[in-house]
Design a protein that fits this description.
There is one protein chain. Strands 1-2 form a two-stranded antiparallel ribbon. It has six helices and two strands, in the order ααββαααα. The protein has helices spanning about 5-15, 30-40, 65, 80, 85-90, 95-110, and strands spanning about 45, 60. The longest helix has 18 residues, at about 95-110. Mean pLDDT is about 80; it is low at about 105-110. The protein folds into two domains: about 1-75, no CATH class; about 75-110. It is mainly α and about 110 residues long.
């Protein structure tokens, strides 16, 4: 799905379904860790199951969002960002902590 976003946005914009090539894509928090990893790497990796009878191999490709210079913002509701159990369970705990630290640093650097 992530790979198809640029093409879908372009097609909808071309057809006049949307006024500008900007969209909001909503995804469950359980997928965010892998998506953020893909965004950071600029690649998407989908590993073939070990039990697959027709082992075609893993799918690894450049991330279309990166290739086509799409800007991406990740917004997590405060109730989830403050729930340590959810963050650990989804693998987002380190990412949120790092982001909060960067935000605190930027705020303190801007203060006189």
């Amino acid at each position: 799905m992530l790979q198809r976003i640029p093409g879908i946005v372009e097609e909808e914009f071309r057809q006049g379904s949307i006024g500008a090539p900007r969209v909001i894509f909503t995804i469950g928090v359980s997928h965010l860790n892998r998506i953020i990893q893909s965004l950071n790497e600029g690649k998407i990796r989908i590993y073939a199951p070990l039990t697959a009878s027709n082992k075609r191999g893993d799918y690894i490709a450049d991330l279309n969002l990166s290739k086509e210079n799409f800007g991406v913002s990740v917004i997590i509701p405060k109730t989830l960002a403050n729930d340590q159990k959810v963050l650990v369970m989804t693998g987002l705990d380190k990412i949120v902590t790092r982001t909060q630290n960067q935000s605190s640093f930027a705020s303190s650097a801007a203060s006189p």
